[in-house]
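Support case: flavin-adenine dinucleotide complex. Customer-provided input:
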Amino acid sequence: MTKKVCVIGGGVAGLAVAIGLHRQGIAVEVVEKDANWSVYHVGIIVQSNFVRALDQLGIGKEAVAAGYPYNGVRFMTPAGDLIAQIPAESQVDGLPGDLGLTRPALHQVLTTRVKELGIPVKLGVTFESFTDTGDGVDVTFSDGTSGSYDLLIGCDGNYSAVRKVLWPEAAPQYTGQAVWRYNVPKPAGLEWSDIYLGVDNGFNGKSGYCPLTPTEMYIFAVIEEPGKPRFPTETLADEMKKRLAGYGGIMGEAAKHVTDPNLVVYRPLEACIMPDPWYQSRVVLIGDAAHSATPHLGQGAAMAVEDAVVLAEELGKSQPVDMALKAFMARRFERAKLVGTSSIMLGEWEMHPEQAGNPVEVTERVRQALAEPV
Ligand SMILES: Cc1cc2nc3c(=O)[nH]c(=O)nc-3n(C[C@H](O)[C@H](O)[C@H](O)COP(=O)(O)OP(=O)(O)OC[C@H]3O[C@@H](n4cnc5c(N)ncnc54)[C@H](O)[C@@H]3O)c2cc1C
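Agent response - structure generated as follows:
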């Protein structure tokens, strides 16, 4: 039986699992190293399995109200002509399938519920060390306090310090691509997220956008960036515009809004998919700490919330912690691996078009697999 849990990291996975555990009657404490508990300002694309998982935590309606439901995803030529479309399919009565959200809006939904439930969150704090005692884990924190728990959950993202302690050899690897993102006004009447397959402008990649609010959308360019370059901040808008040159349709118009280098979010893509199991004794990883993929399928947040729902469910059952962790892995590993390997493969295809298969087929197949209950 699980009575008391320590969560390291107050992001998507950490807050979702804290809410799930609280709903199961398990005492939970969260430590978050960012004293400001902030997230950056761009958007996040999520699908019906994310909405369903948040609904299972009792905050599906709140997330939908904070975001912008749209019709689905379309694939376009560089000129803006339709190649194929995958309409959104809802998994929850009364709630939509595909949704665009700003990261701050999602953070607000999660933090509001955590505060309403009275879950303790220590900000500006991390762990200093932990000792697995076999039937529990003793943790010392950077604020000088300590505690004993039945389980420690590492929800500390792609560069997880918890993972580094237990699997020091595991580290995110650069995939060869980076994402450029920027928020722009949404044209009236645009109700789809569109992906424009590569244009001949000297850069190798694709671009797209996703509605976030009735008046705002975010645009992205996923580009091969050999050597993982860094750019001076003042050049970011010009660099992003170069990568968006030559697109037509809505993308071509949207690119004109990229003017402020300080509002460009540039991020080299680094992935780390851990093998089964994601736990050792009384310490388990979930979310990006366990399986950070590239954003090609827009599934990172959904995988984090699904992990949280399943782990909380299994820990809430009358079974020993090790049985709960085994059951958790059995329900989560293949699903997260499918997202991770498919996302990385799509990126490989973008970098090596001569070896590419059909990205629409892969996107559709993974969506169908993820529509199945966890
Ligand atoms: C460029 C890009 C675009 C993406 N787009 C999408 C998208 O459109 N849709 C989608 O679903 N997903 C997307 N993702 C993935 C998504 O952001 C992640 O999968 C998701 O945020 C994972 O949640 P998490 O809680 O595991 O990690 P995070 O959200 O990274 O949260 C980790 C938290 O832990 C804290 N932390 C870190 N280290 C410590 C420590 N030592 N002690 C205490 N706290 C710590 C951090 O401050 C943070 O609050 C994208 C990712 C990238 C890189």
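Residues 8-14, 31-34, 44-46, 126, 155-157, 161, 179, 267, 287-289, 295, 298-302, 304 surround flavin-adenine dinucleotide (CB under 6 Å).

Case will auto-close in a few days if no follow-up is received.
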